[in-house]
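Memo to structure team: turn this sequence into structure tokens by end of day. - J.P.
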Amino acid sequence: MTYSQIWNNAENEAEILYLEQQIVAIKKEIKRAKAAEQQEILDQANRKLAELEAKLDELEE
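Reply from structure team:
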């Protein structure tokens, strides 16, 4: 494995960790929005969750 491959792998791992943390945070926001019956915030959070999960799927391939 070259230095470049190691660096890219480390970058991917860091980005995956970041995305996973963002997904946890957005899921908490979704729960709060559901509890408060804030549909607009809920819709935005669900769209953001879908985006984050798509990015995570791309990185994990």
